[in-house]
Amino acid sequence: MARIGLLGGCFNPVHNGHVRLAVETLEQLALDWVELIPAAVPPHKAGPDMLDFELRAAMVDAAVDGVAGLRVNRVEAERSGPSYTVDTLTLLRETRPGDEFWFIMGACDLHALPHWNRGMRIPEMVNLAVANRIDEDLDRVTAFVAETWPDAVCEGEGAWRFGGGTRLDFVCVPRIDVSSSFVRERWCAGRRLRGLVPGGVERCLDAERERVARQWVAS
Ligand SMILES: Nc1ncnc2c1ncn2[C@@H]1O[C@H](COP(=O)(O)OP(=O)(O)OP(=O)(O)O)[C@@H](O)[C@H]1O
Ligand SMILES: O=C(O)c1ccc[n+]([C@@H]2O[C@H](COP(=O)([O-])O)[C@@H](O)[C@H]2O)c1
User: What is the CATH code of the structural domain delimited by 3-216?
Assistant: First the structure.
């Protein structure tokens, strides 16, 4: 049985924080590989500055190129309508019953999970890998787990097993203070992106300069 991490995101564009999050989770949870899943129709972040799926996915291809253990999964482009995570995970579990999955998310997303579409089904289906975004996140996640899943069994600091058998693992990631919004803002101001995104991502944006400008600068 392969142990697989799934990192969903808009990736508008993918940046070094995403790559580091994927690599840290891969290593800390001893996963076989991590799949980055660009959201085809993001359920929560629709807007004129959202680049089309293929361009965002091509940038994720460029970001993982040559990085052992990271892959791109375009599964969300195979269906129409909002790309709800619960539907993606249902499909992956049906089509790959021999794999064990960890859905990777920043700690703030864990707190938002009850507001996602059938969000509380997610930890019943797959394991969660929850990464810190700020220093207090382990304490906050610990309190959230105690409140939300009182029957979860703590198996050590930052590790819990839920009643149904899935688990939540906290992953401690060095803070890389970059976001896609920050990258878009810098790009629109004509600034270089060195150190914020992998080189291949910067080249994709340069190659599609006019198209990207129409969406990012105009909005
Ligand atoms: N710098 C970072 N370090 C660790 N995790 C991150 C970082 N940026 C984003 N993530 C996580 O990566 C996942 C996908 O994020 P997403 O594609 O929305 O990027 P974003 O930078 O948060 O985007 P935006 O600025 O457009 O809101 C989420 O789980 C998010 O918490
Ligand atoms: O399914 C939902 O309702 C849902 C709501 C918010 C976010 N998500 C997913 O969570 C992942 C990270 O989201 P974001 O906003 O950080 O890009 C991405 O795969 C989104 O599709 C999913």
Answer: 3.40.50.620
